[in-house]
Amino acid sequence: MKLPKAAEALVILVDYIVAAKGASTSTFAARVRHDVKCDAYNREKARAFCFTRAGSWTIHCSKNIERVSDEVLIGLLLHEMGHIAIQAFHSDKNDTCEVDVDRWVAKNFPEAGYHYKNHSYRTARGKDLTAKSIEHVSKRFAKTILGA
User: Fold this and answer.
1) Who wins on pLDDT, 90 or 121?
2) Of 22, 135, 27, 23, nearest to 86 (Cα)?
3) Residue 137 forms beta bridges with which residues?
4) Cα–Cα distance, 148 to 145 (Å, whole number)
5) Is the overall model pTM greater than 0.85, yes or no?
């Protein structure tokens, strides 16, 4: 299954990071990929849209990432790119990686208005869900990135 909205948003977000922050394209050579395991996680937890793994540039996503608002989409992708950029992944030794990633995003992208709040969406199966305390960016930043 393709994730056109997420894939396009990631390309545009990487272009923004390279242009605005002077980052190397090789540092942010990420891609999105549909992952059925992520679909299963998303069915269990409404806020489980994507994840990354150590040693990989891939952001594994649920198909429902295509169904969230632009502010949530960019917030999620920026957060997952943070995992890749600072190599902060879940393990027995690193239970603070989520906090570390959030600090990285806030420090490097203050213009994003990065924050957490609830978000309601309708799944691909037509079920209404609310993701509690999910990554967001400001509407202004999402519009800057996506040009919408």
Assistant:
1) 121
2) 27
3) none
4) 8
5) yes
